Structure formats: structure tokens, C-alpha cells
Amino acid sequence: MTPHQAVCHLSDAFRAIMGTKPASSIATPFSRTVIKWVALNAPMKWPTGVQTMPEVDQEIGGTKPLEFARDRNDLEALMEQFAVKQGRELQPHPMFGRMTTEQWRRWGWLHMDHHLRQFGV
To answer: pTM for the full model?
Structure first.
């Protein structure tokens, strides 16, 4: 994943959970409980190389990077929209299922941090 692809991936992830981009679900009882708890609460960085949903993978069905400044501005606007949403206004996470507002905010921070760390930001 390139930095530009990461920007588009993050935007697609926000679009999917805010309901403007469809995303398939791979949620199971185990992923909605154990994996969700570990991902949101364990004091460790998220691993790299985990397969993402095709709808948010820029090499499969995600938004193709076009112009970095525009794509970055889109991501900033989506982050602002996401920040004011409540958990019940959001779609279930493709792996973790329904989440509270606090869990969504934690996920948003961790997901952004995960991809920014990939590029030393």
C-alpha cells in the first residue's frame, strides 16, 4: 500500500461505516466479541498485512488514488463527519459488528494510527 492508497483506503473505510459505500460483512460471533475486544483494548499495535474488505482495497474495489491533495481533503472532511456521528448512526463494522460511540471513536483513532505508522507519520 502506498501513502496515497492509504489515504483513499481510510476514506473508503469511513464511507463504508457512514453508509455511503457498501461493504460486505465477515463478522462472526468470535470476531464480534474476542477479536473486537483485543483490537480495541489490547496494548499492542495492529499487525500489518491483514486482509481488508475488497470494497476498501484500492487494488480491488476501493477508490483509486487520483490527486493527492484532493484525496487528502476528502479524508479530512470524512474524519470531521465521522467525529460527530453517534454509534447508532453508523453501519455495523464488517468484522466487529455494532459498536458504541466510544468504540467507534477508538476504532477511528486506531485505524488512522495504524496506517500513518506504516509511513512513519
So the answer is: 0.90
